[in-house]
Amino acid sequence: MSNIDILDDVFEKFVNNAQVFKDREVLRHDYLPDRLPHREDQIKLLGQTLAPALKGARSSNLIVYGKTGTGKTAVTKYVLNHLEVKAKEFHAPVKFCYVNCRMAGSEYRIFANLCQNLGVSIPFTGLAAGEVFDRFRTGLESTGTLFIAVLDEVDALVKTRGDGLLYELTRMNETLSRSKVSLIGISNDLRLKEYLDPRVLSSLGEEEIVFRPYDADELRNILLERSASAFFKNVLSEGALSLCAALAAAEHGDARRALDLLRVAGEVAERKGGNNVIEDHVREAEKHIEHNRVFEALKNLTLHSKLVLLCVSHLNKASASGAITGEIYEVYNELCNEMGITPLTQRRLGSLVNELDSMGLLNAKVVSMGRYGRTKKIRLEITRSLIRDVFADDSRLGRFVEYEPKCLAKSR
Ligand code: ADP
Ligand code: MG
């Protein structure tokens, strides 16, 4: 088939067989469903915590804990949306602002977001931290409202920048008279407490809500509801649905993972031109997702870690029994030399190996060498073809993909 015929075939198959998804968008992470089954308790608790705001009283600060994909963001947005409706109905002076701290990236951007919500403009950069804070405070005071600030993925902020911003915010009410601020911190990390100053913790943690992981049955229900709007009738098989739920439950009860599996399985079915999503498609989806995860991880490594992987790949090709650190170091030095960069010390290289091991990209196993003591044998945990795929396009490393290290040729 000519190129154009191939493409025509792909497009026609797609258009003619687009009977899989009724609405693919409802499987996206940021889609907010009308119903959130199995989170009734959390919705109620959050509602009870925030309700005083409707009568003009400051609601308690709150920390929401739970692993990723347990519905924290969805539930919080759901409750706040309804609070907003009720606040209008009762003419309660409530305002709220949702900020994802990880995406905002810096304290400056978080404050800028909060300010924007109050109609206070902040330049993209350039102001001193204290100045931004003052503008927020003055802006807030002038509105005379109860301001609820939702800081999602606050653990990401605290781990990289400390808890200074939280400290400022928790102390702010002392200097406000017409307005009040309440905080909701959402954390994917259950150990958030360990990162907080006791004063911040006692203030922010006035209330706590925990989101435990979903089990397979709960995930099934969630997927069942979502699939009714995502897929056409009778497209999704019972087995495929249960498998998505089971795989995600085994992960850590992650609804996001379950929805990803369902979406990608649908896409696999669609590409095959069928109109039935079956268990095989879910298995294939699992591989796709895993492949993408590893691909992204590889692309984001530092130059030296990438070099280490390349070296292990070359050594494993030469001998299947696994490489020792000394050999890796020799090949690594040669590649650094070729590139004209300074190699790291062997000790530093050893810690890169350990890091790659804990990421699941390498496997370093301690083996006994009889009376010569013990040594580490290091192997690739991923396929060499994956390494090739990722590094072939790399402007600096591409040429080493098919490279034959001289030091290896010598030792043969
Ligand atoms: P978290 O913030 O805890 O990481 P999210 O709230 O982002 O998790 O949820 C991940 C995905 O799963 C979202 O698409 C969300 O709509 C969905 N989801 C989570 N819990 C439920 C639930 N109980 N019912 C329906 N969908 C849910
Ligand atoms: Mg979230």
Q: TL;DR?
A:
The protein has 18 helices and 7 strands.
Notes on the protein architecture:
The protein is of the alpha/beta class. The protein has three domains: 40-211, Rossmann fold (3-Layer(aba) Sandwich); 214-298, Helicase, Ruva Protein, domain 3; 301-411, Winged helix-like DNA-binding domain superfamily/Winged helix DNA-binding domain (Arc Repressor Mutant, subunit A), CATH 1.10.10.10. Helix content is 54%, strand content 11%. It has helices at 3-16, 40-50, 72-89, 101-104, 107-118, 129-143, 154-161, 164-171, 198-204, 216-230, 238-251, 255-271, 279-299, 303-318, 325-339, 346-358, 384-391, 406-411; strands spanning 62-66, 94-100, 146-152, 180-187, 207-211, 362-368, 374-380. A five-stranded parallel sheet has the order 2-3-4-1-5, with helices on both faces. A two-stranded antiparallel ribbon has the order 6-7. A hairpin with a 5-residue loop joins strand 6 and strand 7. Helix 10 (216-230) packs across helix 12 (255-271). The two termini are 46 Å apart. The model has no long low-confidence stretch (mean pLDDT 92). Bound molecules: adenosine-5'-diphosphate and magnesium ion (MG). Magnesium ion (MG) binds at residues 72-73, 152. The site of adenosine-5'-diphosphate has 19 residues, from helix 3 and helix 12.
